[in-house]
Amino acid sequence: MADKIITYDELKAHASKESMYILLHGKVYDVTKFLDEHPGGDEVIIAEAGDTGKDGTDAFEDVGHSDEARALLPDMLVGEFEKDGVLKIKTPKSSGQTISSAVEAGSNMMYFIPLTLLGAYFAYRFYTTGSA
Ligand code: HEM
User: Fold this and answer.
1) Per-residue DSSP letters for 96-128?
2) Predicted ipTM?
3) Nearest residue to 88 (alpha-carbon basis) of 35, 38, 23
4) Which of 22, 56, 94, 120 is 20 to 30 Å from 111 by CA-CA measure?
5) 35 CB within 6 A, ligand 1
6) Across the strands, what pairs with 19?
7) CB under 8 Å to 49, separation ≥6 — which residues?
């Protein structure tokens, strides 16, 4: 079962409440029975599933799902998503990590530059007023 390859067309074909698939981390999950049980509501899953032709990985990861939530996934597994199809799959590693580290580096610079300028100003004041 887990070795089954699901194509983009198959993913998109399962888009109704009678049968709904979602693509997460390069794997396809059948969320049909889980829709009504999802603590975040069915709409958010429907928005990422089936005929939207989307990869739900980013939405799933952005919520910061718990280990308990992740532990529910194996039971819903249908198979692997085709690797060289229309849709480029996302892995947990590739999704968002470069962006978040860039933002982090950016925010460090945001503090670093003004503080350096402030320090330089006070150093200048210290030396010019001290020797006058
Ligand atoms: C099959 C895939 C999914 C499973 C098994 C799942 C499972 C869960 C579970 C167990 C929770 C409770 C909190 C936790 O334990 O983290 C939760 C919360 C939530 N989920 Fe999902 N989820 C799935 C997909 C998604 C997707 C695609 C979205 C889209 C944005 C989403 C959005 C949310 C939100 C917003 C909450 C927070 C609800 C709240 O605390 O009010 N989930 N999910």
Assistant:
1) SHHHHHHHHHHHHHHHHHHHHHHHHHHHHHHHH
2) 0.94
3) 23
4) 94
5) no
6) 16
7) 14, 15, 20, 21, 22, 31, 56
Query: What is the rounded CA–CA span in Å between residue 41 and residue 35?
Result: 7
DSSP label at 63?
T
Query: Which CATH number is correct for 5-81, 3.10.120.10, 3.20.20.70, 3.10.580.10, 3.10.150.10?
Result: 3.10.120.10
Q: Taking the domains of the chain in order of start, what are their residue ranges?
A: 5-81
Ligand 1: does its nearest atom lie under 6 Å from the Cβ of 21?
A: no
The rounded Å distance from CA 62 to ligand 1 centre is 10
What confidence tens digit (pLDDT) does each residue in 41-70 have?
999 999 998 767 789 999 999 999 999 999
Does pTM top 0.80 for this prediction? Answer: no
> Which atom of ligand 1 has the smallest separation from the CA of 44?
29
Helix (H) / strand (E) containing 45:
helix 42-46
Site of tokens 């603590």: 39
